[in-house]
Amino acid sequence: MTLKLLSLEWKSFVRSKSFGNNLAIKILMGFFALFMILCFSFMGIGSFYILRETFPEEDPLAFFNKYLVFYLTADLVSRYFLQKMPVVNIKPLLYLPLKKRKVVAFALNKTIFSFFNGIHAFLFIPFSVALLIEDYPFINVMGWYLAVTAMMYCSNFINVFVNNKNGIFYAVLGTMIVFGVLHYVDIFDVTQLTQPIFQSFYYKPYLAFVPVIALVVLYKMAFKYFTNNFYLDMGLSGKIESVKSEDYTWLNRFGHVSIFLKNDIRLLKRNKRAKTTLLMSLLFLFYGLAFFTNSIDAYKGPIWKMFAGIFVSGGFLLNFGQLVPSWDSAYYPLLMSQNIRYKAYLTSKWYLMVLATVLSTILSGFYLYFGWEAYAAVVVGAMYNIGVNSHMVLWGGAYLKTPIDLTSNKKAFGDKQSFSPKLMFFAIPKLLLPLVIYAIGYYTLGATFGFALVASCGVMGFLFKNKVFNIIEKVYKSEKYKTLSAYKESN
Amino acid sequence: MIITTNLSKKYNNKVVLDIEHLEIPKGQSFGLVGNNGAGKTTYFSLLLDLIQPSRGEIINNGVGVDKSEDWKPFTSAFIDETFLIGYLTPEEYFYFIGELRGQNKADVDVLIAQYEDFFHGEILNQKKYLRDLSKGNQKKVGIVAALIGTPEVIILDEPFANLDPSTQIRLKSIIKGLTETQGVTVLISSHDLLHVTDVCNRIVVLEKGVIVKDLETNQETLKELELHFAN
To answer: Which of A215, A285, A337, B193 could connect to B48 by a Cys-Cys bridge, CB 3.0–4.6 Å?
Structure first.
């Protein structure tokens, strides 16, 4: 029986739409997985020696344990966004003559072998091996390894529970970000609380049984939870929320554009995938810290300031904009058979992006702390984003043929569209060009001139808005049938 | 109203639709029947310019549908759930379609008030998004949305499927009202021979993309159709 279920799994894997019918993409994905595995193994083996090299006064294991709490959080976050819950595939098995317990056990056990659990082994095993080579006692290392691995699996089952409880998730994420920032600016160090816990697994290896028992309990709880909710109207159905109609009459002042603007705001508010994009845009705000704090050597060049400026102010523009018109893929036939002005449709998306860029620029005022040049880079980046990049993403979108499933986060990261050469081509003016322009200014007359050059590019683009929109409109029209059929295939 | 000439659609050299000549006059209720794969949805998609014909053309009220977009203001359709916006409530969806078709909120309110009994209390003020409604209720929303903005041509693909018996009967009287008193041209496709003979004054049978029967509806039509499909 388990074999039969396994063969079903295998088929659903190799025949899934997102996996693509394209052999090239399958191979590419294989390489990507291999690459990740290699990266992690390298990190595992190398990290011990690198840590000893860079922080000779600290014990590598202690150092590792210090930051383990953030690693655990990052793991939980990525699981929340990416790991699929096992329940979805159970539905067709409900009425078949199978024992409930068997199906539930299969679904749960399947998650054990998920990529998200396996990948950690490639970090922790090599690291433990390195510890053993360096004469750390076997029993202690074993205890530590067992405890950490058990915790990773715990997070697997915790994820099963929190998957639909956004409140808890964002609370945890928010707390950890606050702790991270407090740790960075030396106000409060949460690792002083957590490090001893992880250390104790090493010093008292028998303590490893605590996370192991926690894991067993969590597994039993998950098992019970699913067996009890093994009905269509309980655990297996998505919950239906009670909602209110929203008119947004105040948007009517935008004329024709308001029709779409209202919908776009609802789109962002009511769909999981869109909300993820909003969250990612928010994270982009802090991306600049990597550059302006001078903490990363590779990013110290002056040109990188401009790069940061583009990203910090344009988080939403780049994340949301690059997927226009895919956001509307689920009902594209409706839009195409209605009396629609493309211009109003596109202008609505443009307004959204401009609004978000201005907002990001205001919110990133805290970069003033790193000097006027840092904030100037953000403001200039915003001007370039509004003037040039907003057009570029809309233009590039016309060639985008990947539909979006609004209600799920699958594929929220790394769509196969990212391999499209046409879209790669659009990345040049988006990201590379402003750097080049800035560099020209910077190395001739100095930073101020560089900023002025990039800013004037933005203003120029803004002035030509109507002209560019006419071109984009034509492209959308000529791509209409191809887009429709591509969206239909996956619907 | 709608003139189809020499129309054909091929996918990889396989002809899925081939109509030499078909003329649908204004105010006709036109029924399209045929087994799966007969080309019904293909024809409707061509009418809405959602796919390109391999050959030939459709003229809707003097407008070549793949040449100009001027047919859009007087044509409306409900083909499938891709015509619904899942994250809107039914009310929001009606107002959205209304705005696209130049109707303000009050106009839309007046129109949907007429269809209160068609909705059977399951659509308005339900505090649900369209994606959370049942298939049948989604269909009700789609059909009524297609009536917004006094269109002259209405295209409905399988409107009776998924509807409960009361709603089917109400839908029939709505369609009759539209064609008989308002002169609207209504095109529907259906697998239900009884309904389609009830409501349409002309029925065309498609088979593998070709018209094999073109009937004025009378007492004998249902029998004739049943006989045709039985063989």
So the answer is: A337
